[in-house]
Specification:
The complex is a heterotrimer. Chain A has six helices and twelve strands. A seven-stranded mixed sheet of chain A has the order 1-9-8-5-4-2-3. Chain A has a three-stranded antiparallel sheet with strand order 7-6-10, with no helix packed on it. A two-stranded antiparallel sheet of chain A has the order 11-12. The longest helix of chain B has 29 residues. The N terminus of chain B is likely disordered. By secondary structure, chain C is of the alpha/beta class. Chain C has one domain: Rossmann fold, CATH 3.40.50. In chain C, the strands form two sheets. In chain C, strands 1-9-8-5-4-2-3 form a seven-stranded mixed sheet, covered by helices on one side. The radius of gyration of chain C is 16 Å and the shape is globular. Classes of the chains: A alpha/beta, B alpha+beta, C alpha/beta. Chains in contact: A-B, A-C.
Chain lengths: ~325, ~375, ~190
């Protein structure tokens, strides 16, 4: 019968959890992904101790890349303290004993779900994206055998037709997140479900961007300083999109904002989705309307953030 | 003054403690032992082993206890544990004709060499709640015969002697290990069967049923269904002989399906195949139906657009751990995406209002 | 005859993790010279070549040893540490060779239109890795970088058009530099 140590995780599992053979397989895949920017490399994704769809691809990529000297940051929806980000960060604290941080600039590796941090990334940093559906053509053609052929032939007409139909129907391209990009003028790539506000940050980025889709068994990459263009039309150019206001906490006018409903009558406030960016600005003295002590409305009335599951009380 | 709530870490820790509490339930009731689960919930254990792809009743029992009886959660625990186990090698193919059968039936022949064995089945029980089980559940011990040592030939091999049924030839294809290699389509039948063997029972049940109702109907009879123990052996090249690793319980089902024939080939029955770890006869039969439907190309049939014929559809969606992860992940926060949709919808509505206003002005 | 099988990683998982980061850095930033350490492989394998081998080879890879690398001692050392299979260059995932012995690239695996990743990586020794007269541009490079490659043709003649192709890792002692298929090379 199998003997298992019921107490410790680190004693029973390899550095950063995955076994060496699995890491080698992922590492070989990552190198090819880097050599062919935007191309989806199939890999034998393992069954991880967290559910598919919750970041198993990103976790496997991170695990294959981590060294004991790394300092990692994990964000979900831009925030370090959302439950899934906390859970993944704890996983690497336990299995790799690496340092963790919430500071974007101090992190050597950042695993993210759905956002690119607001701070500019720098050379030597790695940004690992969790990807649910890596195939940008999947919603136009459900069959993998077909979409693979389309990539092979650079046959992206279907995507342009879809975007054009959007314009005919709505007057705009009706894709606001997971907005497709073309990498190095060759592969159309899904940037993972980041808001299209973040798309321009992928282009000419000094950091290495790695993408892992566990359930769909795909890896892909954007090397540093890469040409990444959001698909658009000459007469309908790509535009970024965010709430047309400033952060109620730090008054930032350049960051992506979450909308928070603060009372039963539906009053809203807008705050930075990137929690570290917001805290950093506040610590440097920037204040918004919601935390200004001069505002009598805000002194006696405690406002709780009901916008996300990080407020879950149990 | 607004303070963003930072509860993630504490919330998780508290939720897990609450879960432990609920799992234990009323402390005045004795806790379940793993032995009780493996002995008395054996079919649940079978399913966890089959879909978890790991033959270990004790671990499956533990997973069931830990998951509070949630079968897919238990399967998930087993899969995640299985991934971490080192691979020592590949066992030799099991010989199911040497099975020690506890159940063996054929729907196509009234009597068969080796005999029909009804075995421990729910078939022909009347589905009436047995309130005696509510009291203590003790039953008198059943009398036992010596296990039959006579050979148990596969019934379809009898038809084979007259060429009445399509021959299964070894195509030398071994199954890829789906847990170690990415699924790249199309796949060989061995790999397909591997995916089905670990596939979700409910999904295969529905798909198999759909073939009976006309979505790629293939008129199946159960040629033979057998449940019992077989020996697992492994060749050790260094030793020069194979060693016995132990016995596993499996369910095997072969269906006899509508005959095929053409101008050049005389009519012949065809077959579907199901093989599952443990006692899992519903899954075994369903798997054989789906296997048969997926063989349309090899058997020269038309593609009728039925879900059960569509290899990519079936293989991409039969795994319940993949499915449950992705279905359930939509409860994770998506407010960044939702926010961008919200802004877009607002923009579209603003534009629509403006153009409506403009056209009304023009009409005035 | 017995071979010295020592000189591998001391701590497999951590040493391989450091080595991989150096290799990935090199391929993600062509022209950047990374370094590996802590190995004493049998001649003529360099520290960098050995580090790449121990980080990436195993029983799922097929590799080819060309020219002076095809010795029993090298084969025994790589077998012992990685379990890799040996094959001819035409079928290999990885090829270890010298820069003047790469051979025609059209004989190597360059992938297919649908799977361009199923292509070879050549780990080739190079006499000097430093600044030089060869201008590199392309993904991973901020504007341009100058390196000491004397002649781009062994790395580019016979490459099929992107996305197909062969990728290179140039090595010298403990140093390595990546040269993926996307990098444009030009002598100045």
């Amino acid at each position: 019968m199998t003997s298992i140590n019921p107490n410790s995780m680190t004693d029973d599992y390899n550095f950063a959890y995955l076994d060496e053979q699995t890491k080698r397989m992922i590492r070989r895949g990552l190198l090819k992904a880097i050599a062919i920017p935007g191309y989806q490399v199939p890999f034998a994704s393992r069954e991880m101790p967290m559910p598919y769809g919750w970041g198993t691809g990103g976790v496997q990529v991170t695990s294959a890349c981590l060294t004991p000297d790394d300092t990692i940051k994990v964000i979900d929806q831009g925030a370090d303290d959302t439950t899934n980000a906390v859970s993944i960060r704890q996983f690497f604290e336990k299995t790799a004993l690496v340092n963790t941080t919430t500071d974007t600039e101090a992190a050597s590796l950042i695993q993210t779900r759905h956002r690119i941090p607001e701070h500019d990334l720098s050379e030597g940093q790695i940004l690992v994206y969790q990807v649910p559906i890596p195939e940008p053509l999947r919603f136009l053609e459900p069959r993998e055998r077909e979409t693979r052929k389309m990539h092979a032939l650079s046959e992206y007409g279907l995507m342009h037709v879809k975007l054009y139909e959007d314009i005919a129907h709505h007057g705009h391209i009706a894709t606001s997140y997971a907005y497709p990009v073309k990498v190095e003028e060759r592969y159309v790539m899904d940037p993972s479900p980041i808001p299209k506000f973040d798309n321009p940050k992928m282009a000419n980025c000094p950091a290495l961007q790695l993408f892992g889709a566990g359930r769909e068994q795909r890896l892909y990459a954007i090397p540093p300083y890469c040409n990444v263009v959001s698909l658009d039309f000459e007469d309908y150019p790509f535009t970024r999109l965010k709430a047309d206001t400033i952060c109620a906490l730090c008054a930032a006018n350049d960051s992506y904002l979450d909308e928070v409903i603060i009372d039963d009558s539906g009053t809203r406030m807008y705050v930075c989705s990137d929690t570290h960016y917001c805290e950093d600005r506040q610590s440097k003295g920037h204040t918004g309307t919601a935390n200004s002590l001069d505002d009598p409305d805000n002194v006696d009335r405690p406002i709780s953030n009901k916008g996300g599951d990080n407020a879950a009380s149990v | 003054m607004y303070v963003a709530v930072k509860g993630g870490e504490k919330a998780i820790a508290n939720a897990h403690r609450w879960l432990d509490e609920e799992r234990r339930g009323d402390r005045s009731v004795a806790a379940l032992s793993i032995k009780q689960i493996t002995e008395q919930m054996a079919l649940a254990v079978s399913r966890v082993m089959a879909e978890g792809s790991l033959y270990d009743p004790e671990l499956a029992g533990l997973a069931l206890k830990q998951s509070r009886g949630d079968l897919i959660e238990a399967i998930f625990l087993i899969r995640a544990y299985r991934t971490t186990l080192p691979r020592f090698g590949t066992s030799s193919p099991i010989d199911t004709s040497a099975m020690q059968c506890k159940r063996r039936i054929s729907a196509t022949f009234k009597d068969i060499p080796g005999g029909q064995i009804l075995g421990p089945t729910f078939d022909y029980t009347h589905r009436l709640l047995d309130f005696k089980l509510m009291a203590d559940g003790e039953v008198p011990e059943a009398e036992q015969d010596e296990p039959s040592q006579s050979s148990m030939p596969h019934i379809l091999e009898l038809l084979n002697k007259d060429d009445l049924i399509q021959k299964e030839c070894d195509d030398d294809n071994t199954a890829n290990d789906l847990t170690r290699e990415p699924l790249t389509l199309p796949v060989n039948r061995a790999t397909r069967l591997q995916a089905l063997a670990r596939g979700d029972e409910g999904f295969l049940l529905g798909l198999g049923y759909s073939t009976q109702r006309g979505f790629a109907r293939n008129h199946a009879f159960v040629g033979e269904l057998r449940i019992g123990f077989v020996t697992v052996e492994m060749d050790i090249p260094e030793l020069g002989f194979s060693i016995d690793l132990g016995m596993i319980e499996i369910t095997e089902c072969e269906t006899v399906n509508q005959f095929q024939g053409s101008k050049s080939e005389p009519a012949q029955f065809t077959r579907g195949y199901g093989l599952v770890l443990g006692q899992q006869e519903r899954k075994g039969i369903a798997m054989a139906l789906v296997d048969r439907a997926l063989r349309w190309q090899e058997l020269g049939e038309d593609y009728l657009g039925a879900p059960a014929q569509d290899e990519e559809f079936v293989l991409s969606h039969c795994d319940n751990i993949q499915a449950t992860g992705f279905i359930e992940h939509i409860k994770l926060p998506h407010y960044v995406d939702f926010q961008s949709e919200l802004e877009l919808v607002r923009q579209l509505r603003r534009d629509a209002a403006l153009s409506k206003e403009a056209s009304e002005k023009a009409a005035d | 005859m017995t071979h010295d099988l020592g000189g591998g990683f001391n701590n497999t998982s951590k040493d391989a993790a450091y080595a991989f980061r150096a290799i990935m850095d090199a391929l993600a930033r062509p022209g950047y010279i990374a370094a590996l350490g802590g190995l004493s492989p049998p001649d003529p394998l360099s520290i960098a070549q050995a580090g790449i081998a121990l980080t990436l080879f195993d029983h799922e890879t097929h590799i080819a040893l060309k020219g002076r690398y095809g010795t029993d001692a090298v084969r025994a050392w790589l077998s012992f540490h990685t379990g890799t299979y040996f094959t001819v260059p035409e079928k290999a995932d990885f090829i270890i060779c010298d820069h003047d012995n790469i051979g025609p690239l059209d004989q190597l695996r360059q992938g297919s239109d649908e799977y361009p990743d199923q292509s070879a990586t050549v780990i080739t020794a190079y006499p000097r890795l430093s600044d030089g007269a060869c201008r590199l541009t392309g993904p991973g490079i901020n504007d341009e970088v100058m390196v000491s490659i004397a002649d781009p043709s062994p790395f580019r003649d016979g490459q099929r058009s992107f996305p197909l192709g062969v990728d290179f890792i140039l090595t010298h002692d403990a140093h390595l530099m990546g040269l993926p298929r996307t990098t444009q090379m030009e002598m100045c």
